[in-house]
Amino acid sequence: MRVLAAMSGGVDSAVAAARAVAAGHDVVGVHLALSAKPGTLRTGSRGCCTVEDAHDARRVADLLGIPFYVWDFAERFTEDVVEDFVAEYAAGRTPNPCLKCNERIKFEALLDKAIALGFDAVCTGHYARLATVDGRPELRRAADLDKDQSYVLASLTPHQLAHAMFPLGDSVKAAVRAEATERGLAVAEKPDSYDICFIPDGDTRAFLTGKLGARPGTLVDDETGAVLGVHAGVHGFTVGQRHGLGIDAPAPGGRPRYVLALEPVQGTVRVGPAERLAVREIVGTGPTWPSGEPLTGTVDCVAQIRAHGGTTAATASLVDGELLVRPAEGVRGVAPGQAVVLYRRDPAGDVVLGSATISRTR
């Protein structure tokens, strides 16, 4: 097969590309330039897509003996990921930019270009597994559950998965680094990138304030309606947040307060005790089905609502085009804008059933 290997400059994509070459595929490496100012996007292990990363990817491609190119996707990334991120926070929602990047950049813009150029598949360093069952693609959790990235890939379509390769799905991270060392790849011990790549200092509130400006509002006790303080904008908060609320007076009995809801039009941040965070019903819009098979009836499943969060047993069904998920027990910290991903337990590894963007909870 003709394979386009997306090479970020990190160890995972380097080993994925190396495995594609070792498997006998005709591989071409490509690094995506996602910033108009690439020198500003890395601080140690924070950020990505810098000139340094492009050089690291090129050195790996040279060692593997494959052609290598840098493609400029900065404008598309800004529009589809960064601007979407800012708009979602301004609307009082909590988006996942990694999920959006996979959906819009790596498996839409990149894959479309790859297919137009005659490639059969795009190879990435994601930790997830793919299988074909009855002619349909099946997305599964990775063998290394600590690194599993199926959550941020769950919005991909059957067409996209049919043209995807995840060579690291059956490996654990330690083995990937060891293999990189054995292959003589200089990125073997390079730190993993984490947090939001386009906010290298990790200060999301400052980044959003710089984009949106100050939008003053009030912090309100959800139980009593009392105004507890003021803030510079709802974009500085997310549901479930406990620290950094800027409230001086303690709650009755010294109980900690949490963000319960955001009301961007009024500029209100509602806060209250932890028990008021419990959610027993989640409604998601824009459901996607990686295998191409929507839910029928009510299905027992496992739900995950954060990329690095735990899972909970649940039932799920489609109601008027929306995904209705009822956790077996109340779950906390469920914020509109996040994705809810459903899995089916399977001896071969949890299988992704579907995904939707959380619009509201009860």
UniProtKB/TrEMBL annotation:
Residue ranges of the region described as Interaction with tRNA: 147-149
Active-site residues annotated for this sequence: 101, 197
GO molecular-function terms, A-Z: ATP binding; tRNA binding; tRNA-uridine 2-sulfurtransferase activity
Gene that produces this protein: trmU
Entry superkingdom: Bacteria
Annotated PANTHER family: MITOCHONDRIAL TRNA-SPECIFIC 2-THIOURIDYLASE 1, TRNA 5-METHYLAMINOMETHYL-2-THIOURIDYLATE -METHYLTRANSFERASE
NCBIfam families with a match to the protein in the record: PRK00143.1 (NF001138), trmU (TIGR00420)
Domain tRNA-specific 2-thiouridylase MnmA-like C-terminal: 281-358
UniProt entry tagged with the keyword Disulfide bond: yes
Family: Belongs to the MnmA/TRMU family.
Domain tRNA-specific 2-thiouridylase MnmA-like central: 206-272
UniProt keyword Iron present: no
Pfam families: tRNA_Me_trans, tRNA_Me_trans_C, tRNA_Me_trans_M
One of the GO BP terms on file: tRNA wobble position uridine thiolation
Described purpose of this protein according to its UniProt entry: Catalyzes the 2-thiolation of uridine at the wobble position (U34) of tRNA, leading to the formation of s(2)U34.
The protein, known as: tRNA-specific 2-thiouridylase MnmA
Major localization listed first in the record, in broad terms: cytoplasm
GO CC annotation: cytoplasm
EC number: 2.8.1.13
Membrane-traversing stretches: none
